[in-house]
Fold:
Amino acid sequence: MIRRPAARGTRAAAARRPPALLAALAGAGDRLTVDVDGETVAFTHLDRIYWPADPAFEQPAITKRDYLRYLVVVAPVLLPHARDRPLTLFRWPEGIAHRRVLEKHWEIALPAFVERVDVFSESKGRTDQYVLCNNLPTLLWLAHMGTLEFHMWHSRVRGGADAGDAGADFGTSIGALQSSVLERPDYLLFDLDPFIGDAAAGKRDAPFNAAAFAKVEAIALSVHALLADIGLASLVKTSGKTGLHVIVPIVRSLRYGAVREMASYIAARLLREHPGDVTTDWSVERRTGKVFVDSNMNARGKSITVPYSPRGLSGAPVSMPLTWDALRGAVPTEFRLPTVPAIVRTRGDPWAGWLERKQDVMVRLGASAG
Structure:
């Protein structure tokens, strides 16, 4: 069951428009109640530091106010990617120097403008409620609640012509969920992580390592070339940490199990071509010095960072979509919360409209095998 807010009339309040909303945030004291797209949203502790100053980038502390202003600017490119996808959220209500909270199922009362969906949990034998981020008021409210990382499912609750007869019942039983559109992802995913330097030791906030990223960039380009040989177009973005995400937009004719098998097949081909640089081994000790290509993330309930979401790490890095040409020589640390708005204004969104450019992976793989 999807719970969507009732349709509301459009208000003429100037504060709903980005320039005026940005001005309101800039001029407010430590709290603000404002109209956002016809919804009343209250913010407090606007001067709370979410990301401390980072001397490495000569970057001052980033407050809740700064973060909200960032989201107002990038919302037109961020929201289309998150729309209708159940979210896994990481919250730091007091900022990244304090406690982190993993939030999947909100137990508190949610504002009326927050859409949500009931999804059956096989492990619990009951329904869980997931949040959907389908509008600007929700995006800003979640940020106000300390959500500094947005992670999205690979599948959406909304049906469509490419989903065939997949159902819209996600919450009554595991059988219904497995027959629903949430069981059919929009893309194949390849999650690439370098295990070099501090990253090999499993440090979550490992400092940027140029050599490690150069290797993961080279492998991503190899994935891109291999997919192109099969006849599949792909997209790439930084993870916001040390790795890269490569996705292949596909029509929703396949369930997760089949998509995972296909991704594993492609990863195995990549391993055969680059045995000294690539690993698919789950043993962390055997990954050292190589790029781990994870195809097992192609599963219901797994998630990736939403494009343009920041990470709860020093410097406020952002998961940044790139063109394949822009990937060459890219430095992920250049994509941070203070720098990304200007980049978006200049370059636009390289992933714009990707849902309208899906491919039939069965046809492509069949032609490649032939």
